[in-house]
Amino acid sequence: MRFRVLFLAWLVVAAIAGASGAVSRLQPPYPQLVLMGLTAALVTAGATWPAFRAWNFSLSWHSIVAIHVSRFVGVYFIYLYTRGQLPYAWAVPAGIGDTLVAFLAAALLVTAAATKHPLLLLLWNALGFADIVMVVAKAALIGTRNPQSMSALTRLPLSLLPTFLVPIIIASHVLLFVQTRNVVRRVA
After folding, report:
1. Which helix (H) or strand (E) holds 123?
2. What is the pTM of this model?
């Protein structure tokens, strides 16, 4: 329960930072440093804080994968591109990739196929991780070259992506890789 409260508090702080304009005032490389710092803190806490690690491992694959249904936000990226608010070079590949990952996450949840075939979960996790790494790297590259082109990601509601959701998504992929390491050993 206490970790859910901590996550809720984190969400509130991220929302306040977005609403106050604090996130939109950050210029590269600071948005990227915030995202990397939050992600590193989350992964480090999962690796070194025994109570948090135990809580993480108490989560079912269903609850971890369910987080990724939020990646249907990719449809919104494409919409913002059509309105000239995000560049094609980022919005369309990120939008398609995130939407595909979200669709596959929903399919895993609805069919529970990963329970019978854990390799499907591992493959989905690898695809989702590769996609989020590409999304973050491309956003950093484009945002560093032309910060204004990515400014939609620094205002609510999208400011919650780098300050809250993306670190959780990346950390959840790491957690699933650790949880499925036995599947990797059997395949290798």
Report:
1. helix 118-145
2. 0.94
